[in-house]
Design goal:
Elements (H helix, E strand, L loop, with lengths): L1 H12 L4 H4 L23 E6 L19 H16 L3 E6 L8 H4 L6 H7 L17 H12 L13 E4 L5 E3 L5 E4 L6 E5 L12 E3 L2 H4 L3 H9 L7 E5 L11 H12 L4 E6 L5 E7 L2 E6 L5 E8 L7 E8 L2 H8 L10 H16 L5 E5 L16 H9 L14 E6 L10 E4 H7 L6 E7 H13 L1 H6 L3 H6 L2 H6 L39 E6 L7 E7 L3 H15 L12 E2 L5 H14 L1
Parallel strand pairs: 1-2, 6-8, 8-9, 9-11, 15-19
Antiparallel strand pairs: 1-12, 3-4, 3-7, 5-6, 10-11, 12-13, 14-16, 15-18, 17-19, 17-20
Bound molecules: 2-acetamido-2-deoxy-beta-D-glucopyranose (4 copies) and zinc ion (2 copies).
The site of one zinc ion has 6 residues, from loops.
Length: about 600
């Protein structure tokens, strides 16, 4: 019976990881640390993994920790292979989400036309798509015709549960359903699948089938028959799906199904989407790695004793900078990292940035503002900056400021910290990549003043409103807080990741950051002197359904008006987007 089946899986995944710690004893290797580096433990089968790059191919110009670009990454993989892998094997994997977050992808029409060229310079052995390749038809068409059917990636682009609708309305797999191949050196037989999480908002050019359902199809049975356990050394499941998924347990369902056909195989997962560094133990012969977001992480994983009863796994999260790349590839100086091909890609990125005017300076940010490493009440919190100084700049063409005004935004609409330094056109795409329209409704103050609290309390809204990465945030601080707090003079601030192997996965020992919870929504409130009973309540048009729900629920409780709110009560407010208002604010600082 299906329900009981899923239930039992949920129970399995809830077993405390302590159960497996004996098996993995010593996995948190003491290793030889040089400076504050933690070295990589190269094994027989090695992987480098990226995910959720979201257009961040041109490095993080205001964050030295993540100051390498895609060309440096290409140099790194070349040198790493030459100098560290030898007669072992290395596979390069990406798990999708390549748009929306940086000007290099987002300042072009269609979105990603230039960034895709750059991204595809990397020699991936396995690659696939994320949900951000499926929001607009343009993105989906570009991905299919530029990458999926690109000769360079023949067979290597895998999407087991996604189909593409061609220009001729034909439904075809979005790449290979699976890939079976042998590694170059040790001749491991690899069987690879790729699953996108159950994303049901794809545009009309793509179809996503839930992974567990896809695995019931004939093609999978045929694969199992052709490649039974004795013909396979390692199963790789890479896809745009979180490896820790406390709500849906999707990856655990996939694992349970695979184990029924492959009870003894090594199964290695690579995941993404929730924008975190993470490593999970599934059982004695199966682990999963997830490698951050926005090209600030290269995930490393190795498996040793691959063909034995007791494979050994090791993981590292490599900071995306040239020091780390040089250190781990074993070159003596940063300048020795460079390869001609990598350098060519770096200069191409520079040309694109110039062409798209991403380098043109709008103003200067006098100090850094953070999303979650400062509390909301802090002057260094970006939401505090927005509600105090930026949103009040909003002007309507449709109405005037005779009434008190509330302006409510969902925090998920801000994607990145705002760092001290030059504010360029790129900064706009980075901090607030979504263009937005404002709507408003005229309502009694007695209702308006409770909407934000209502939206921030709703557990249901937590899962449906923000982008998924913000929904997971609530659980993160707890996990990170259970690692020792590091404060060593001379160390830079950065990740201390807690995962199923412990607190020592990051390739550099960093000073710890504090994390503060971020609510669903924040608001700016301007109460007019001599305010009347009714106010203008302004919000992003795309959160209108949530605002209307909140108003009706609050009114049911408080009985302020005698009617129900609907879309008909909402009007266009007009005015500039949050990103543009932020730009205006930064500009105004220069003049003052
Ligand atoms: C498919 O159609 C799009 C426009 O909808 C066009 O840009 C593209 O070149 C077409 N591709 C092929 C292979 O026909
Ligand atoms: C790098 O770019 C130069 C100049 O465009 C070109 O001649 C060279 O072949 C390129 N090298 C590689 C390895 O792509
Ligand atoms: C970049 O700026 C220049 C000069 O201001 C302008 O001529 C050009 O059209 C801009 N290009 C883009 C892609 O915005
Ligand atoms: C503001 O707009 C309202 C209509 O929405 C109008 O009745 C009022 O006179 C206006 N006030 C000012 C000061 O323009
Ligand atoms: Zn993502
Ligand atoms: Zn995603």
């Amino acid at each position: 019976m299906l329900t009981a089946f899923w239930l039992s899986i949920a129970v399995v995944s809830a077993i405390p990881i302590g159960k497996f710690q004996a098996v993995f004893n010593g996995a948190e290797e003491k290793g030889h640390d040089e400076g504050n580096f933690r070295d990589l433990k190269v094994g027989e089968l090695n992987f480098l993994h990226t995910t959720d790059t979201h257009g961040w191919l041109g490095s993080h110009l205001t964050q030295p920790n993540y100051g390498a670009d895609w060309g440096d990454f290409i140099s790194f993989t070349t040198k790493f292979k030459e100098r560290r892998i030898g007669s072992n094997d290395l596979l390069l994997i990406d798990t999708g989400d390549k748009h929306d977050g940086n000007g290099i992808s987002d300042a072009t029409v269609p979105n990603g036309i230039r960034s895709t060229e750059i991204f595809n310079e990397q020699d991936y052995d396995l690659l696939t798509l994320g949900n951000h390749e499926l929001y607009t038809e343009d993105n989906t068409i570009l991905e299919y015709y530029s990458t999926v059917v690109n000769d360079k990636f023949k067979g290597k682009y895998v999407a087991s549960n996604v189909e593409f609708v061609t220009n001729e309305s034909e439904i075809v797999p979005f790449g290979s359903k699976y890939r079976f191949f042998q590694t170059a050196n040790l001749r491991y037989n690899i069987l690879a699948f790729s699953f996108l999480f159950n994303f049901q908002r794809a545009n009309s050019r793509a179809i996503v089938t839930p992974a567990a359902e896809e695995l019931q199809k004939d093609w999978f049975q045929e694969v199992v028959n052709s490649y039974p356990e004795e013909k396979v050394d390692v199963i790789i499941v890479f896809g745009h799906m979180p490896i820790t998924d406390p709500e849906e347990h999707e990856i655990n369902k996939v694992h349970a199904i695979l184990r029924t056909y492959y009870p003894n195989s090594v199964i290695q997962y690579f995941g993404g989407h929730s924008h975190i560094r993470d490593f999970a133990i599934f059982d004695e012969r199966s682990t999963g790695l997830q490698s951050g977001r926005f090209a600030e992480t290269v995930g490393f994983l190795s498996i040793d004793n691959v063909r034995s009863e007791a494979p050994r796994f090791s993981r590292r999260y490599i900071d995306f900078n040239k020091d780390s790349f040089a250190h781990h590839s074993g070159v003596n100086f940063k300048k020795d990292l460079r390869t001609e091909r990598g350098a060519n890609v770096s200069s191409k990125i520079g040309e694109i940035r110039e062409e798209l005017n991403l380098t043109s300076v709008v103003g200067y940010v006098p100090r850094s503002y953070y999303m979650d490493s400062k509390p909301l009440t802090s002057k260094k919190n970006i939401y505090n900056l927005l509600t105090t100084n930026v949103l009040p700049l909003l002007k309507s063409k449709k109405t005037n400021s005779s009434k008190s005004r509330f302006i409510l935004i969902n925090t998920g609409s801000i994607r990145y910290d705002l760092y001290e330094g030059e504010f360029t056109k790129d900064t706009e795409y980075i901090v607030s990549p979504f263009s937005n329209d404002w709507n408003f409704v005229e309502i009694p103050l007695a209702l308006a003043e409770d909407v934000a609290a209502y939206l921030n309390n709703g557990a249901i809204l937590m899962t449906s409103m923000g982008p998924p990465e913000s929904r997971m945030k609530a659980e993160l601080p707890k996990r990170r807080d259970s690692c020792p707090f590091i404060h060593t003079p001379g160390f830079t601030k950065g990740y201390t990741t807690l995962d199923d192997f412990g607190c020592k996965g990051d390739d550099k020992v960093h000073n710890s950051e504090l994390y503060f919870p971020v609510p669903n929504v924040v608001q700016s409130v301007e109460l007019q002197a001599g305010w009347s009973e009714s106010v203008h309540f302004v919000f992003y048009s795309f959160i209108q359904p949530y605002v209307i729900n909140a108003l009706n629920a609050l009114n049911e409780e408080k009985k302020v008006v005698t009617y129900k709110f609907s879309d008909a009560d909402c009007m266009k407010y007009g005015g500039k987007s949050t990103g543009e208002l932020l730009k205006d604010y930064i500009r105004s600082l220069d003049k003052s």
